[in-house]
Each structure stands twice: as structure tokens, then as C-alpha cells.
Amino acid sequence: MSEKSEKKDGKDGTRVFKKMCLDGKISTYIGTREFDAMQVYPVRGSPFCTTKIQEKLLKKLGAERAFPFTFELPAGIPSSVTLQPVKNDQSSKPCGVEYCLKTYIAKDMHEPPDRKQVVDLLVKKITHAPDTQAPQPYVESAKNFMMSPNPLHVEARLDKERYVHGEPIYVHITMGNQSTRAVKKLRLSVKQVANICLFSNAIYKCTVASVEHDLNVQPSQTIAQTFSIRPLLEDNRDKRGLALDGQIKSEDTNLASSSIALPISSREALGIVVKYIVKLELFVSMGGS
């Protein structure tokens, strides 16, 4: 197979992905390699009509040689996710979920295609976050210490529930120290938890961001403060088993998106389930956290 070629057709710089079969008799063009389960265009139930990219390709290639088509991903299938291999290790294919758009020439649907006349083009099924607003994640905790009649009370709240790749996470913290110990340091971290449902029941846990701040919260003191943390793939390139958004060849990608719970018929249909946990730790005088 020839490698992916990325072309720009027209003055507007439209991106078109192309792949050709081994004998050059068939080529497949698509305007994007990222898809989700929500069909935006054309509207469901409406007659098929060509897109602007398809119209340009028809004009360029000729209507007698080009055949526009659409396809729809089934509902409930897992998103494209790849587990990060050892850095610079090209010896084996990474574990994960991937999708391939297959086009070929045949006399009928039941005839096995000639391998030289098959185009396999990798595409990604991405996670589409719902538009509905969700409550801000919130937690509170109280810690009792020996020889201290009252506890250390902490409340933590995120500024929202959903974040896009590269966006900072703001954590609003309220601390009421009624204990006899001073709070000296705060550690904030984000952990990725990936549940592998493909071949075995394996769970990978990886800290993808961590920051520390010095504090001096004395007994009977109360503070309210906001801290930020930003998980980025570039800070975690050397961590094996980290879940990434589906990767196509050497293209760059992101940390895997959180999975959205959907009804399933089998465990394997889950693919790789990903979630993120924000963890807050406080360190006090005389040891302990």
C-alpha cells in the first residue's frame, strides 16, 4: 500500500486524504479521518447529496471514474484508543482499538477481493462529548489526628466536569484547620485509569500530571484558594501503557478521552474504558498526610 498523502484542493486549502491500492486501479479519498457516532450531515432520512469536497473531486477526477459515497459508524462502538508502547520501539504493533475503511473492486458482493485491488485506510472513531451541562465535581473530607480534639476539614471542587485536550483543570479548595497540626504542603495530581476489556481484565493506572505547593495553614486558620493543573501528553511520552486517542501512523495525538458509558452486549464491546481522577493530598507537621 502507498502511504497516506494529504492534498489541498482549491484556494480554500481543503484537506483531502488519499490512499491507492497496490496495482493503482482504485484510490480512496476522504475529507477527514476522525468520526464520531453523531451523524451531522447529511441529515438522517434525507436523500443522499454530495458534499463540497466530493463535488470538487468529481470535477477533478471525472464523473465516469469517481463514485461518491457515505458511511455511518454503528452506535455504541468503542472509541479509537491505543496504549503507548515503549519509547522508540517499532518492533510490534501497539495494543488498542482501531478502525479501517476498506474499499475494493469486485464483480459482486460475495466475491473475495483481489488483495492488489483493496484499499485499507485507517480512520479514528472519536469521543463526542454531550452538550448538556453536568454538576461540578465536589468532595469533602475530614481528618482526625491523635491528640487533636478537632479534625482538619477540606472541601474541593472542580470548575467544571468536562475538559478539552490541553485545557487546565482548576481546583477550588476550602480548608478549615481545627486540628492542632499545621498544614505544610499540598500535592495535586491527575491519574489516568484504563480498563482493558479486549483480551483480559487488566487495569493500567498512570499519573499524568502532578504539582506541589508549599502552605502554612496554622491551627484554627481557614483558607480558600484555587490551584491549577494541566495534563499533557508531551510530559508523559516515556510512560508505557498510557492510553492515547487512536493514533494513525506517526501523526501526533492526545491523552485518551474519557469513555462515555453506553449499553453494551458484551464486555469486549467496551474496548478500552478510560477515566481520570483528580487527587488532593495535604501534608501536615509532625508527619502524615
Structure description:
This protein is elongated. The strands form five sheets. A four-stranded antiparallel beta sheet has the order 9-10-11-14, with no helix packed on it. The chain has one helix and 16 strands. The protein is 3% helix and 39% strand. It is mainly beta. The protein has one helix at residues 52-61; strands at residues 5-9, 14-20, 27-30, 34-35, 81-83, 96-97, 99-104, 118-125, 138-143, 152-158, 169-177, 183-196, 202-217, 221-229, 243-245, 272-284. Residues 1-11 have low confidence and may be disordered.
Residue stretches low in confidence (pLDDT < 50, at least 5 long) are 1-11
Spatial order of strands in the largest sheet: 9-10-11-14
Radius of gyration: 25 Å
Number of helices in the DSSP assignment: 1
Helix share bin: under 10%
Give the quaternary arrangement of the chains.
single chain
Average pLDDT reading: 83
Q: What is the 3D form?
A: elongated
Class from helix and strand fractions: mainly beta
What topology does this entry show?
Blueprint: E1 5-9, E2 14-20, E3 27-30, E4 34-35, H1 52-61, E5 81-83, E6 96-97, E7 99-104, E8 118-125, E9 138-143, E10 152-158, E11 169-177, E12 183-196, E13 202-217, E14 221-229, E15 243-245, E16 272-284
Parallel strand pairs: 4-8
Antiparallel strand pairs: 1-2, 2-3, 5-6, 5-15, 7-8, 9-10, 10-11, 11-14, 12-13, 12-16
Quickly describe the structure:
The chain has 289 residues and is mainly β. Helix content is 3%, strand content 39%. The chain is elongated.
